Amino acid sequence: MKRTTLLALTLAMTPLAALAVPAVGDMIGTNPDEAKTALTAAGCTDAVFGAEGGNIEAKCTDVATGAKMEIYINPQTGAVVDMKQAG
What is the pLDDT of residue 7? Predict the structure, then answer.
């Protein structure tokens, strides 16, 4: 019984791994070291920062899918305001 329950829980959690990158509204921070740490913890590695459209732009790699992502962070609040897969 325990083995079946563990298997069911593992399978139920699998789709969540695909959503490893941060979500809009998540607090990332405005300090580069803090933001890089938060992005890495959220599953988005190799972050490189720049500015775009009045926001902080973080380009990183989603470890769950290998997709290149662009995460836009409000420079005053440190919250994710938008994100998209890099083309």
Answer: 41
Alpha-carbon gap, residue 49 to 72, rounded angstroms: 10
Largest CA distance in the chain: 54
| Torsion angle of the four alpha carbons 55, 40, 67, 82, in this order, in degrees rounded to the nearest 10 | -30
More confident: 18 or 42:
42
Side chain identity at residue 66, one-letter code: G
- What is the per-residue DSSP string for 19-61? T-S--TT-B--SSHHHHHHHHHHTTEEEEEEEEETTEEEEEEE
Question: Tokens representing 87?
Answer: 């083309």
Q: CA–CA separation, 75 vs 3, rounded Å?
A: 47
Structure tokens at 6: 């563990």
